[in-house]
Amino acid sequence: MDVFYLDCNDIMATEKSVKCRANRVLPRMGYLIGLSGEADLPEHAVVEMPFWKAKHLSTGRQPPFSIILPGMYRPKFLNVALAEPAVFPMTRALPQFYQLVVHMFPLFSDLSIDLRECIARIYRGRVRMITDYAYNESSVLKPAHLDNWETQLFHIGRAGHLSLLDICFVQF
């Protein structure tokens, strides 16, 4: 997915730091792990950098780095979210949970099918909860455990519900 336009949510999602492993010795890059600027970065050293930078440094014919799949997208974490998606605190994982995974799909082709299915099941489970909140008269404020996409969905559902109420219950 090589999209050259990023909206604010994409920028915030790709700013998330991810761990990367050096694929070879990188001369004069030791400062990335706290060594002197003259020191080499050893092969298999793990460094953190923003995803947008890691994405470009981990692609190509001989990339210097490989991105390590973040813990929030590993099976152990996703199984917890799948067990009860409606009550899982998504913002504890990452406020841009869905946006970042969309950018990560092309980089982890071996995991993409399982990861896509798992994320889709979590999303379907959470959509039911979001619509319940949006159509519930007593919930004035949005639930605090929604990520950014889910918050947008909540506001759209709430606005639709309120406009439907205005149309249906107009007093003559």
Automatic annotation (TrEMBL):
SUPFAM superfamilies: GINS helical bundle-like, PriA/YqbF domain
Record protein name field: DNA replication complex GINS protein PSF3
Key words, A-Z: DNA replication, Nucleus
Role: Required for correct functioning of the GINS complex, a complex that plays an essential role in the initiation of DNA replication, and progression of DNA replication forks. GINS complex is a core component of CDC45-MCM-GINS (CMG) helicase, the molecular machine that unwinds template DNA during replication, and around which the replisome is built.
Residue span, DNA replication complex GINS protein PSF3 N-terminal domain: 7-58
Entry's Gene Ontology cellular component terms: GINS complex
One Pfam family matching this protein: Sld5
Quaternary structure, from the entry: Component of the GINS complex.
Family: Belongs to the GINS3/PSF3 family.
Source domain of life: Eukaryota
Main subcellular localisation: nucleus
Residues annotated as domain GINS subunit: 90-156
Keyword Nucleus: yes
Organism (species): Trichuris muris (Mouse whipworm)
Gene Ontology annotations of biological process type: mitotic DNA replication initiation
Location in the cell: Nucleus
InterPro entries: GINS_A, GINS_bundle-like_dom_sf, GINS_Psf3, GINS_Psf3_sf, PSF3_N
